[in-house]
């Protein structure tokens, strides 16, 4: 009997880590089976800066998701973000040996593999190679080349690049948490999957995902990804500003921001004041909501302007590149009061808040369809596309046997020679030594060899 395909996404954010388990239902919608959320302690601005704490946070989120769903998680698709991410446009081509054969998936893979070998800056690694438009023998604007004839297959690509060490650190955390990594996805692409409709991608849209440590941007036009960027500011810098500006602790600043904060300073009257309990018996602190929204407004304007400059880099002022569907805001930061109006005011573009309920099954928990979970939902959708069995029911869970790598012929010969040498030495040392002891010593050496081999493989 075929195992049910269960998908798992892991969103390693700056403020929270979310593990989400889901599957496709009979209507092709995503059914969420379990969610685990933990406070993220070892991540700053989307980048792991404390391996031990990140592993603990991942394990906590995974354990909660397993408890919630009754499934045992084996592997995960992970989102990657951080200020080290950059994207480039690149064109490449292949000459096909037989133009009389139709173009197949194999040809496209060949072209993508060629782009994967692009020389990057030292310490950088390619995360995604996303084909945009194809050209066959000079005929341009082809979206789907499979099944067509042609000798020269050319394509323009959107290549996403990141720092190799940051990607490795994420991989190391996953492995140390006892999981396998089944895929890496750029976080704005995952969020886009979760909150954008195909019509918006066709018309032209900019997705802005305001997270805790970073603000991610993904621009689509004609159904194709056109530009991605990661701005190294998010909701945490707003909290930091409130903390400094009002001389209060971080916990109180975060509460103030979410409960009373507004991105539009004209909203509050001068006499609106909130009282905050003092620390350890000190007098309570009174904070004017007008001042609070001024602090928030200044920082949000800075974030939006940085993102808007990236939208201008894409060239949205060109009539052919116009983003008709405007902007979609998602992520925890999009829940800030009046942020939609402020974004419309700064950019002059239509704006809506994006909820990840576009692809979710109708019976989904209301909390899951919050913009906070957009990236996690997108990662689960990504895992569904991988077609892997990423989790199994707890009662069916059998730990997989550890495979010992079989030694090669050369290694066997080397081990044989060593065994003979050991036997020779043993005979010389003491003729009465039993063969059993000799065999044992040979076996120990054999095991050590395998241990060395596995250590090197790590």
Oligomeric description of these chains: single chain
> Distance N terminus to C terminus?
34 Å
CATH-level-2 architecture of the domain at 198-356: 2-Layer Sandwich
- What kind of sheet is the major sheet? 5 strands, mixed
- Tell me the name of the CATH homologous superfamily of the domain at 198-356: ATPase, nucleotide binding domain
Mean residue pLDDT: 87
Which strand order spans the largest sheet, edge to edge or round the barrel?
A: 3-2-1-7-12
Helix content estimate:
25-40%
Classify the fold: give the CATH topology of the domain at 198-356.
Nucleotidyltransferase, domain 5
List the helices and strands and how they pair.
Blueprint: E1 7-12, E2 16-24, E3 30-39, E4 43-44, E5 47-48, H1 51-69, E6 71-73, E7 75-80, E8 86-95, H2 105-116, E9 124-136, E10 139-142, E11 152-163, H3 164-176, E12 180-186, H4 187-195, H5 198-203, E13 205-210, E14 215-221, E15 224-231, H6 235-246, H7 250-260, E16 273-276, E17 285-288, H8 289-314, E18 327-330, H9 339-347, E19 351-353, H10 374-386, E20 391-393, H11 409-429, H12 435-457
Parallel strand pairs: 1-7, 7-12, 13-18, 18-19
Antiparallel strand pairs: 1-2, 2-3, 4-5, 6-20, 8-11, 9-10, 9-11, 13-14, 14-15, 16-17
Helix pairs in contact: 1-3, 4-10, 6-7, 6-8, 8-9, 11-12
């Amino acid at each position: 009997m075929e195992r049910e395909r269960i998908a798992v996404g892991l969103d390693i954010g700056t403020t929270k880590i979310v593990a989400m388990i889901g599957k496709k239902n009979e209507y092709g919608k995503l059914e969420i089976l379990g969610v685990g959320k933990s406070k993220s302690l070892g991540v700053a601005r989307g980048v792991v800066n404390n391996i031990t704490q990140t592993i603990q946070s991942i394990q906590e989120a995974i354990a909660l998701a397993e408890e919630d769903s009754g499934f045992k998680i084996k592997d995960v698709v992970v989102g990657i973000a951080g200020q080290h991410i950059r994207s480039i446009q690149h064109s490449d081509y292949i000459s096909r040996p037989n133009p009389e054969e139709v173009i197949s998936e194999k040809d496209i893979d060949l072209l993508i593999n060629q782009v994967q070998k692009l020389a990057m800056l030292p310490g950088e690694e390619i995360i995604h190679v996303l084909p945009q438009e194809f050209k066959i023998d000079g005929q341009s604007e082809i979206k789907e080349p499979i099944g067509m004839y042609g000798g020269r297959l050319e394509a323009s690509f959107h290549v996403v690049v990141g720092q190799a060490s940051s990607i490795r650190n994420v991989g190391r955390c996953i492995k140390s948490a006892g999981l396998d990594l089944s895929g890496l996805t750029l976080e704005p692409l995952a969020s886009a999957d979760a909150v954008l409709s195909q019509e918006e991608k066709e018309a032209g849209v900019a997705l802005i995902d305001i997270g805790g440590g970073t603000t991610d941007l993904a621009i689509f036009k004609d159904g194709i990804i056109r530009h991605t960027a990661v701005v190294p500011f998010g909701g945490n810098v707003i909290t930091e500003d409130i903390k400094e500006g009002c001389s209060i602790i971080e916990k109180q600043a975060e509460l103030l921001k979410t409960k009373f904060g507004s991105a539009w300073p004209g909203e509050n009257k001068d006499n609106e004041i909130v009282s905050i309990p003092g620390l350890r018996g000190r007098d309570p602190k009174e904070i004017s909501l007008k001042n609070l929204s001024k602090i928030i407004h200044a920082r949000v304007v800075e974030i939006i302007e940085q993102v808007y400059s990236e939208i201008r880099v894409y060239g949205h002022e060109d009539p052919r590149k116009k983003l008709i569907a405007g902007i979609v805001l998602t992520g925890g930061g999009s829940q800030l009061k009046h942020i939609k109006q402020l974004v419309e005011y700064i950019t002059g573009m239509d704006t809506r808040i994006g909820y990840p309920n576009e692809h979710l099954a109708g019976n989904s928990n209301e909390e899951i369809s919050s913009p906070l979970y957009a990236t996690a939902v997108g990662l689960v959708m990504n895992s569904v596309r991988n077609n892997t069995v990423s989790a199994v029911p707890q009662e069916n869970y059998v730990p997989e046997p550890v495979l010992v790598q079989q030694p090669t012929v050369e290694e066997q010969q080397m081990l044989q020679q060593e065994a003979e040498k050991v036997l020779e030495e043993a005979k010389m040392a003491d003729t009465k030594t039993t063969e059993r002891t000799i065999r044992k010593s040979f076996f120990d050496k054999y095991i050590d060899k395998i241990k060395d081999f596995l250590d090197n493989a790590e």
